[in-house]
Automatic annotation (TrEMBL):
InterPro entries: PGBD. Residues 1-214 form the PiggyBac transposable element-derived protein domain. It comes from Odynerus spinipes. This is PiggyBac transposable element-derived protein domain-containing protein. It holds the Pfam family DDE_Tnp_1_7.
Length: 229
């Protein structure tokens, strides 16, 4: 479950001194949890309205409810990250993803904002195909940038004191426009970047670097710093 993987579900309610985790038993009895787990059912949509928007509602309403509950139990610390996760699933849904190079090859892709220290997922945005980005702001930006801004805005809406946080991203999300937009929202950004990204200046594509203690450093405008090990 989440950040505490165990061999099987029953072990989360173990009473053994060397493996007991009191958190779960305080929230649910094992019997109550298993009742909900086995009876959870997503309503089948009306066949007469079997378009893409109706089909995703079978899962979206449930996922949106879960997303709304994450913030009730934890507030991320200063360092946060945005990345994607794949929830293993092989059922018949139109937005299932497949990547043979990933440990979880089949599943539902979910973009997440998480606390960097604990790994606690604070906010999610499920991937429903091309319609995922329809309601996101700033159509002039890359989809990856819009996703990141959306997740951070959700954090700000729930925790106004989250200004000044430090976000970490991988090369799929990192871009100069993202850094500039986050700076307007008073959020710092650190991440790897693809040099062929739009907006990356030529000075970073073929930088003239100087060596210092096994680390090459170059500074540039916009309060950005590039490092090459």
């Amino acid at each position: 479950m989440g950040t505490i993987p165990l061999a099987n579900m029953q072990e989360y309610w173990s009473v053994k001194e060397n493996s007991r985790i009191p958190f779960f038993s305080k929230i649910f009895t094992r019997k109550r949890f298993m009742q909900i787990f086995w009876m959870l059912h997503l309503k089948t949509p009306d066949p007469a309205k079997n378009d893409i928007r109706t089909r995703i509602q079978r899962a979206s309403n449930f996922l949106e409810y879960i997303n709304s509950r994450f913030s009730d139990y934890f507030i991320p610390r200063e360092n946060i990250c945005v990345d994607e996760s794949v929830v293993k699933f092989k059922g018949k849904i139109s937005f299932i993803t497949y990547n043979p190079n990933k440990p979880t090859k089949w599943g539902i892709r979910i973009y997440v904002l998480a606390d960097s220290e604990t790994g606690y997922v604070y906010s999610i945005l499920p991937y429903y195909g091309s319609i995922t980005s329809e309601n996101l702001p700033r159509r002039d930006l890359l989809v990856s940038t819009r996703i990141t801004l959306h997740l951070y805005q959700q954090l700000l809406d729930r925790v106004p004191t989250a200004e000044g946080y430090h976000m970490h991203t991988d090369r799929y999300y990192t871009s100069i426009p993202l850094a500039e937009e986050l700076r307007k929202m008073k959020c710092h950004l650190t991440g790897t970047i693809q040099t062929n990204r739009k907006g990356v200046p030529s000075s970073l594509k073929k930088p003239k670097l100087r060596e210092k203690k096994n680390c090459r450093i170059q500074t540039r405008e916009y309060n950005a710093l590039s490092l090459e090990g």
